[in-house]
TrEMBL record:
Domain SRP9: 8-55
The protein's role, per its UniProt record: Component of the signal recognition particle (SRP) complex, a ribonucleoprotein complex that mediates the cotranslational targeting of secretory and membrane proteins to the endoplasmic reticulum (ER). SRP9 together with SRP14 and the Alu portion of the SRP RNA, constitutes the elongation arrest domain of SRP. The complex of SRP9 and SRP14 is required for SRP RNA binding.
Lineage: Eukaryota, Metazoa, Chordata, Craniata, Vertebrata
Name of the protein in its database record: Signal recognition particle 9 kDa protein
Protein family according to the UniProt entry: Belongs to the SRP9 family.
Record note on quaternary structure: Heterodimer with SRP14; binds RNA as heterodimer. Component of a signal recognition particle complex that consists of a 7SL RNA molecule of 300 nucleotides and six protein subunits: SRP72, SRP68, SRP54, SRP19, SRP14 and SRP9.
Length: 69
């Protein structure tokens, strides 16, 4: 099975608190990251958009991945 089929990513934004929660799981391991910092929210949004672009690409090598700051 391919790697992207085994891993799930969930983003939740709570406007009332101004918090963003990112949860990544493969049923064996669950990673959760929460933040209220605007800078972190922007980085997670950028990461998530790159991840989605890679997951829908027909050929993974054709998608350019930006370097981490």
């Amino acid at each position: 099975m391919c790697f992207s089929c085994q891993v799930r990513v969930v983003l939740k934004y709570r406007h009332a608190d101004g918090t963003l929660c990112m949860k990544v799981t493969d049923d064996a391991v669950c990673l959760v990251y929460r933040t209220e910092q605007a800078q972190d929210v922007k980085k997670i949004e950028k990461f998530h958009s790159q991840l989605m672009r890679l997951m829908v690409a027909k050929e993974p090598r054709t998608v350019a991945v930006a370097e981490a700051d």
